[in-house]
Design a protein that fits this description.
Blueprint: H1 21-24, H2 28-34, H3 36-41, H4 49-52, H5 56-82, E1 87-88, H6 90-101, H7 108-121, H8 131-145, H9 158-161, H10 164-171, H11 175-212, H12 233-238, H13 245-250, H14 266-276, E2 280-281, H15 288-299, H16 307-314
Antiparallel strand pairs: 1-2
Helix pairs in contact: 5-6, 5-7, 5-11, 6-10, 8-11, 15-16
GO cellular component, one term: membrane
Family: Belongs to the fatty acid desaturase type 2 family.
Subcellular location: Membrane
């Protein structure tokens, strides 16, 4: 569905951000540490473990680091910064940004701004990682290398670009991953760096990327959303809930992507747990009218009506 109603900020650049390129401009050290060459090198660096050996400590670190960071990808980059599906304090907002950037998936303004663009244009010619239009390679990884996709789409993410600390961490997007790299080394030595950090980062990359590629191809389509988004239970497990991608395209505002109890959504459960301690609050939920209509339509063997119709009828 190519509506923008869920997006809090749309449209054109305002004068206060016309110097947006300053935000995208990385320092020299940043370009080296988190640029394309390093991204490609990441795919081979874990092989260094052949020379240092692999320890159990490093393997455990790799697994823990994967799950913790996948949570940050979905809760921070996606559900908070791109969709504002819950609220938090300014301090925890920064922690979310830092945690997300430890994955080496660039600045939070870049990631979340482009994701808003994906929802505005999904599976049209303007969708920069459309599986339908561009195929698997381009939608999975190729789009990241394109020059025109390097800039931060600041016009789509002004609501967070107004915070200086978020601009800083976005511009210096190498700080978070390399901090974690050093910490991984200190915890488990060289195997901790090669396996605990680099291999874990590599797996987090490709697991995240399946949401741009495979969830627009594999799985079932509960809702007619005008694009190719799908729900797939296996991808929902590997990405902590993001595999309910057709649900998400239908009702983007929700903090919960598994709409029913049987649709496992680990990110949502953890967010709710953090909510118990007052770290996050005001979760946006799926309206009852949508859930009821969905069940009714499935029992009648029909596709649920477009979201706007269901919401209008339910009020
Ligand atoms: Zn989204
Ligand atoms: Zn999508």
């Amino acid at each position: 569905m190519k509506t923008t109603t869920d997006l809090p900020v749309q449209g054109t650049q305002t004068p206060q951000f016309t110097e947006a390129d300053k935000i995208t401009g990385r320092s020299k050290i940043g370009s080296w540490f988190s640029g394309d060459k390093m991204f490609i090198a990441m795919h081979f660096i874990p092989l260094a473990a052949i020379y240092t050996g692999v320890t159990w400590k490093a393997v455990v670190l790799c697994i823990v680091s994967y799950w913790v960071r996948m949570f940050f990808v979905t809760a921070a980059y996606h559900r908070y910064f791109a969709h504002r599906s819950f609220e938090t304090s300014r301090i925890f907002q920064f922690i979310l940004a830092f945690g997300a950037e430890t994955t080496g998936q660039k600045g939070v303004l870049w990631w979340s701004g482009h994701h808003r663009g994906h929802h505005k244009h999904s599976d049209t010619d303007l969708d920069i990682h459309s599986m339908k239009k561009l195929g698997f390679y381009e939608s999975h990884i190729g789009w990241i290398f394109k020059k025109e996709n390097k800039r931060v789409p600041i016009e789509d993410i002004q609501d967070f670009a107004k915070y200086p600390e978020i601009r800083f961490i976005s511009k210096h997007d190498w700080i978070a991953p390399w901090t974690l790299g050093v910490v991984s080394f200190l915890i488990a030595g060289w195997p901790g760096l090669w396996i605990g950090f680099f291999l874990s980062t590599l797996i987090t990359y490709h697991s995240t990327f399946t949401i741009n590629s495979l969830t627009h191809k594999w799985g079932s389509k509960r809702y007619e959303t005008g694009d190719e988004s799908r729900n797939h239970w296996l991808l929902a497990i590997t990405t902590m809930g993001e595999g309910w991608h057709n649900n998400h395209h239908y009702y983007q505002a929700s903090a919960r992507m598994g709409f029913y109890w049987w649709e496992i959504d680990m990110t949502y459960y953890i967010l709710r747990f953090l909510g118990l301690f007052g770290l996050v609050w005001n979760f946006k939920e799926v309206p009852k009218a949508i859930k009821a209509k969905t069940i009714a339509s499935q029992q009648a063997n029909q596709s649920p009506a477009p979201r706007e119709q269901v919401l209008a009828a339910g009020q």
